Amino acid sequence: MRLLVRARAKINWTLDVLGQRPDGYHELDMLISSVTLCDQMDIREAEDLSLLLASNRHSFIPADDRNLVMRAAQTLQEAAGIRKGAEIRLHKYIPVCAGMGGGSSDAAGALMALNRLWNCRLSLEELCRIGLKIGADVPFCLHGGLCRVKGIGEQVMERPMGRSIYLITIQPGRGLSTKEVFESLHTEGINPADRPDNEAAEQALAEGHLRELVSAMGNVLEPVSVRKRPKICEALKDLRESGAIGAQMTGSGSVVFGIYPNAYRCREALEELQKKYPNARAMHTVDSGIEITEEE
Ligand code: ATP
């Protein structure tokens, strides 16, 4: 059997940090959506477990046991008591250290596909429990669509989305380490004015009201990341000037996104923005995180 997997990137409409647990993990409250941008994996049955990174542009992504795809496969082997292997070919398109959950989505895609390839018959809930050991965003990536995510990422509640939303993302300069951004948040603290209104954002997303969404959204990590990468601020301004109704950083950055009223305005803005930012990408929200097709 051969499985083709699309592992979708995510964007944060909201990201609030409610506190820190004694074990160091942060208590979060977020609204997250899957978007069309995705990595792809080609997974075949094999005796041993192996991973090939199909493009060498990403030399900073490990192709060994440190890769989240390999960690997902090995954790599943252990949890299900499986000795089978697989040949995995990973094509990366999601920017790295971007706040778009690329590594987590690859791990979620590997878990879901290998669960099928190896006939493990684990439920979504069981896959989420395994996924959480690999990364806080993995349970969300397994659910996909629009979700309210709380705790350390283990409480994932699927939410209805009133309409597809058209976006442009830009990565202004180098990526950012999630760990470093959270460490700086500790020293710098949170300004209450930066906190999102999760309830209002959830309602705006359900009703498809973009202006209400923009006034309710927020990411408490944005000011910290802006201080580390001042170019983030410039990119947010450029997105707004290109016709975005609102613009914000996703996750711990450094990717920022702009929200456009429709596909036409989004395409028009992309043409303009790509002159300054060749890595600008247009995308829209989708209602699933992982898609798997079976080939003979
Ligand atoms: P998040 O939004 O979940 O915080 P991120 O966009 O900040 O994620 P990723 O790009 O998912 O970060 O990955 C961050 C780190 O994980 C990098 O140091 C990278 O080398 C490592 N990594 C391991 N496996 C992968 C993978 N399959 N894809 C991307 N990065 C990976």
Q: What is CATH's topology name of the largest domain?
A: Ribosomal Protein S5, domain 2
Mean pLDDT: 95
Q: What structural class do you assign from the helix and strand content?
A: alpha+beta
Say which molecules are bound, naming each kind only once. adenosine-5'-triphosphate
Basic shape: globular
Helix content: 25-40%
Poorly predicted regions:
none
Number of domains: 2
DSSP strand content: 25-35%
Q: What is the tally of beta strands?
A: 12
Give the CATH class of the largest domain.
Answer: Alpha Beta
**Architecture per CATH nomenclature, i.e. the level-2 architecture of the largest domain:** 2-Layer Sandwich
The string of secondary-structure elements, in order, is EEEHEHHHEEEHHHEHHEEHEE
The helix tally amounts to 10
Main β-sheet: number of strands, strand sense, barrel status?
12 strands, mixed
Give the termini separation: 6 Å
Backbone CA Rg: 19 Å
Can you tell me about this structure?
The chain contains 10 helices and 12 strands. With 296 residues, the chain is α+β, with helices and mostly antiparallel strands. It folds into 2 domains: 159 residues, Ribosomal Protein S5, domain 2; 121 residues, GHMP kinase, C-terminal domain (Alpha-Beta Plaits). The longest helix has 16 residues. The termini are close together. The mean pLDDT is 95. Adenosine-5'-triphosphate binds next to α1 and α2. The site of adenosine-5'-triphosphate (ATP) has 20 residues, from α1 and α2.
